[in-house]
Amino acid sequence: MSTARALASGLLLAAALLCRPAKPGPRGPGSVNTRGPRAGAEGARAVRGITVGPIENAYHPGVGYGSPAYARTLDECVRSGATWVAITPFGRVADLTGRGVDPSFEQPFTKNREDVRRSIVMAHERGLEVMLVPHLWVESGEWRAKIDPPTDAAWDSWTRSYGAFVRGWAEVAQSAHVELFSAGVELRSWVTTSRAPSFAALIRELRGIYKGQITYSANWDDVDDTVILGELDVIGVNAFYPLAEKDGAPFDVLLEGGKRVRSRVHALAETWQKPVLFTEIGYTTRPDPAVRPWEWPDAMKGVHVDEVAQADAYRALLAPLLDEPRFMGFFVWRVYADPDDVSQEAEWGFSPRAKLAELVMRDAFAATWAADPAPRPRGWPAPARTPGLFP
């Protein structure tokens, strides 16, 4: 049950009205990054993306973002048919009380900024577009969605600290000409509650720094309760939707689950008149990964590796979505900055690299999607005039 459902509906409605702009419209000349995502726009294809996870640890020097090892990963992404990569620098949070964000992660913040900026340039040199996604790592091992400072004063302090963190990365996004910037990831206790107007205000601040397109990576089970969507150019979803309720579900049951996800995407896009992007999708390489896709592989022991189950989950999710004109695309979660380092994740983890799921991913990348600009069958909506928005 989301935090929002625990609140009075009138309180949430007030927050939503405060966060929703009166009417989306074009920004001033030169204020939009023209390389940004334009779902349905003439000449722009849907997002075919892969998240490249960092290896920033000081015990692994020379193989993180911006390194020769990272260059090999980018080359693999290009060969797979990807057109985008997501880059995910982290900041540290001690626990769920939200006492502040330490922007240094394994290495000093200034060093990580330099490495990330270089990694963006390297992606652009290969013709890849980039989504920059500042993440939070909670040292207590708990989920960032539950960060909830205990008092109003503590919330004000948290808002200032997080704002400084994300503005620092927005500066990198602007200077490196990033195509899409995520203002946050899975911050449920903030964006689905009466605290949401302060996050909406932060997005407006970011627009004064970064002139490209802005999204926010909502969790799949709270995106409908997220009341800051009106501030965004693109609705982002970390899309770990379950496709079946019970273990052992055959593929046709998984496919029906994928069709339900498509229906939710369509409804969300229609409600907000904006394209929907899956900022993360993924399944672990184990039996029945589509039943509880969010389960983290590090917590699993003695797992039977099942590449077929992982590939079937990908296929069941993506097959219906590629026929949805309002579906802007997806980012696969994930590969790592060093393609030769297998220590970052167990064999039963999320990465599709060198597994059957990679073949499904490649087939999806190579397909023609409904969101691609041509051919445009009769009856589809006209291309959007404003980047990232439907008319």
Kindly name the structural category.
alpha/beta
Secondary structure: number of strands? 11
**Terminal CA distance:** 34 Å
Largest sheet data: 8 strands, parallel, barrel
Name the helicity range.
25-40%
Helical run tally: 9
How many structural domains in the coordinates?
A: 1
From the 3D coordinates, which CATH architecture would you assign? Alpha-Beta Barrel
CATH topology: TIM Barrel
Explained architecture:
The chain has 391 residues and is α/β, with parallel strands linked by helices. It has a single domain, classed as Glycosidases (TIM Barrel, Alpha-Beta Barrel). Helices cover 33% and strands 15% of the residues. The chain contains nine helices and eleven strands. Strands 1-2-5-7-8-9-10-11 form an eight-stranded parallel beta barrel, surrounded by six helices. β9, α7 (251-272) and β10 (276-281) form a beta-alpha-beta unit. α1 runs parallel beside α6 and α8 (307-321) packs parallel to α9 (356-366). It is globular and about 50 Å long. Residues 1-36, 38-42 and 380-391 have low confidence and may be disordered.
List the helices and strands and how they pair.
Blueprint (H helix, E strand, L loop, with lengths): L8 H11 L27 E7 L14 H13 L3 E4 L2 E4 L7 E2 L6 H17 L3 E4 L2 E4 L13 H24 L4 E6 L2 H4 L4 H12 L5 E7 L15 E4 L12 H22 L3 E6 L25 H15 L5 E10 L19 H11 L25
Parallel strand pairs: 1-2, 1-11, 2-5, 3-6, 5-7, 7-8, 8-9, 9-10, 10-11
Antiparallel strand pairs: 3-4
